[in-house]
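Sharing a chain and its predicted structure for anyone who wants a worked example. Both blocks are below, sequence first, C-alpha cells second.
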Amino acid sequence: MTEISAPTISVKHPEVFQVAATLPIPQPSTLVGALGYCMGAFYGTGFAAGEEAKKITEVARSKALTEVIVISSVTLKRFRVLDKGFEKGEYLEAYRVLNQGNLSEFKRMIESRLTDALYREYISQTVLKCIWMVKKPIDPRALRILQRLGDTESLVTVLESWSADCFSEEVTDISTDYPFTVSENNTVEVHGDYVLVKMKDEAEVSKMFYIPCRREIATAKDGSKYLVYKPTKVDLKFSKPVKIFNVENEIIVV
C-alpha cells in the first residue's frame, strides 16, 4: 500500500491516442506496471519483474484522497532522438552533419525532424492511495522507488508505503470508495455519486469501471472554469454475491 503525492500527472485514457485525455485516477494495469518497475529496481531482476508482477497481482486499485483537478490540455514538444532517430536512420545523418561542423543544420534536424508534439491533459494537486493484493509477500520498501505513475512526464512522490493483512469474503451489500466493475451475469444498485469510465483491468482488458466520485465545474479566482473530481463513497447492492477484500477496514470489490 502507498500514499502518493501527484502534483501533476497524466494517466492516458486507453481509447485515445495523441490528443490524450487523462483518467481521474490510475487504472489497474498502470498500477501493475508500476509494481513491476519497483520490483525490478528493488530486487535487481530488471524487465522480468514486469511479468512477475502480472502473475502475483490479484487486484490493484487506487483512489484519490483529495479532490482531483483536471488541467486544460497543454502542448508537449518532445525530443525523439533515440527512438525516432534510429528508426529512420536520421540520428546517424545528424551525427554526420555535426562532424562536418554544420551546427545550424544539426540544430535544425534535432529541433524539427527529430521532435514531435502532442496535446496532453493533466490532473493536479492530489494525493492518491494505491493498494496491491498480491499472492506472495513483497517488501513495502520497494514501492518507495516509484518515481512515475502514468505517462512519461508524470512524476510522483511516495509519501508512505506499508504492508497490511487482508481477508476476502463474498457479500451482496457493501460500501466502497475504490473503483469496481460488475460482471455480465450480475447487476448492482449504486447509491451515491460515481462516474463510469472505461479502464484496463489488471490483465489489461478494457472494462467499464464505476469510480466513486462527483464531477463538478469549479471557478478559479480569475473567473476561469475547470473540471474537478471530488472523491465519494457509494453503497452497493448486488443481485449475486461478489468477492471483496477487506484491508484495514477498506473494501475492494473484485
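Comments welcome. The chain is about 20% helix and 45% strand.
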